[in-house]
Amino acid sequence: MVGAAEEAQLNRLENQVDNGGGGAWEYLCLVRKLKARRPDKVLKHGLSILNNPKARSNLGTEEWTLYEQVAIAAMDCQRVDIAKDCISVLSNKFPGSTRVGRLEGMLLEANGAWADAETTYRRLLEENPNDQVVQKRMIAMAKALGNISTAVEYLNKYLEIYMADQDAWRELAEIYVSLQMYKQAAYCYEELILCQPTVPLHHLAYAEVLYTMGGLENLQMAKKYYASAINFTGGKNTRALYGLCLCSVAINQITKGRNKEDKESPELQYLAAEALVKDYKEKAPAKLTLVTSTLKSMKLIS
Amino acid sequence: MAEDLVLDTAIRDWVLIPLSVVMVLIGVLRYFVSKLMRSSQLPDAKALKEGQVIIRARNLKSGANFIPSKSFRARRVYFTNEENGLLHVPKEQAQNAQAQMFSDPNMAMDMMKKNLSMLIPQSLTFAWVNFFFSGFVAAKIPFPLTQRFRAMLQNGIDLSSVDVSYVSSRSWYFLNLFGLRGFFSLILGEENAMDDTQRMMQMGGFGFDASRSLAAEKDSLDIIQHDWALPKIEHRAEQVLRKLLR
């Protein structure tokens, strides 16, 4: 996650470098530190340093880090030729290195030689069965090939050990949602909420999974999580507002006719609808009629 | 001082400078030897997993109120049950942890290597200095010092009449041994020049016992009271929306 201040600094540096103001190396360092993904810029500025022998030798041992960074960026940009050159420089310098081995595997992936890439990764895993990066590459590759069940299997194996890795949990949650395995997805989202209790997006995603599962209990829970997403975003998240409206309508349909004793805040859905209308009025007046008619049919606004 | 000692320039040329040069060279040599002997041991899966389990249990503890109580209870059982819970450490294993660590040949080997690369050159140089340079007054520092510094600067000459600002050769050896660290970090790069005191500290700190912190996490998870934060959230959201609409 890149913080706002860091992102501003990154953009400022990027601007400076783009306009020929120098500081390319600082920019590249910052990109690496923040793990930002800006392959085109990295490729351009990294290559300009690498092609300039004087600038390159000024880096000292950092030169090889730059080769690695540029190689990855080049693969991102489908410049496999550049990546190949960088990697061959690295493998001449560090023969037998695991880190270069990973790059070679990625290069094979970029070329579409999946089977070869897999053999490379398997060899690396034999040397070090707990290599995080290689395991993640295997998962990504399985996903890219469409072997979703294999990807799930690998991910579960990975999370068995690295169970505090949020990104892996998120990936798994998304895969489960795409497979319509909502119970498992809900578990993953719970795990994400535990990791970052104040990130509204996790609450929202969890609520959506609960809403999709249906049933009175789940719907009520979904409504609460939508409410908490609204709470954390200050009511600015349209998706959460819509979700809340839909939830309350669904709950009303189920409990129709029964006595409504567990109404905690009966006005919440009306307020959400009102907030939606206001939002559309400000930002997309053209669609306002559509929204009002929908909400009217849900009997949320008069 | 009336009768200032005048040091022969030959002492400078044949004692002071060779001693310093030898100390630097030995430091560099030791760095490369320890680099050769260093074995990069891979962390084993169990240790990795224990660390991650602890992080996850802490997350569960701090974020417990944000998930429904059913989910919380399921997780708590998963972590703390007595049969195969993640945080549960069998009794006999907990006691053996320390013993295992010492019987682990890799660990012992590593310690040996560290010790060897530290101890052997040091004792050799000390013997060498003692043999060739004992009893020299090797240098004079340009400011006066109090008597308490005598033990530090005049190790090896037992004369109380010599002024404290004179440095004996053996003391010069010690000063070099401990004082060259900054110089090494300059020529060998940062972090490379680990001095001996740091090494000692590292050796002391390796006895980290994961099973103890696992048990601590288990206890604190066991006593936690789950109080779902969300029932109140609808009111809060209502207030937020009211504020927004106003």
Provide a count of the helices of chain A: 17
The largest sheet of chain B, given as strand count, sense and whether it forms a barrel, is: 2 strands, antiparallel
What proportion of the residues of chain A is helical, as a percent range? over 70%
Structural class of chain B: mainly alpha
What would your notes on this structure say?
Chain A: This is TPR-like protein. The complex is a heterodimer of chains A (302) and B (246). In chain A, helix 2 (24-34) packs across helix 3 (39-50). With 302 residues, chain A is mainly alpha-helical. Chain A has helices spanning 4-18, 24-34, 39-50, 53-58, 62-76, 80-93, 98-110, 114-127, 132-144, 148-161, 166-178, 182-195, 200-213, 216-233, 238-254, 268-283, 288-297. The mean pLDDT of chain A is 87. Chain A contains 17 helices and no strands. Among the domains of chain A are: 1-95; 100-157, Serine Threonine Protein Phosphatase 5, Tetratricopeptide repeat (Alpha Horseshoe). Chain B has one domain. In chain B, strands 1-2 form a two-stranded antiparallel sheet. The longest helix of chain B has 29 residues, at 9-37. Chain B is elongated. Chain B starts with 8 loop residues before the first helix and ends with a helix.
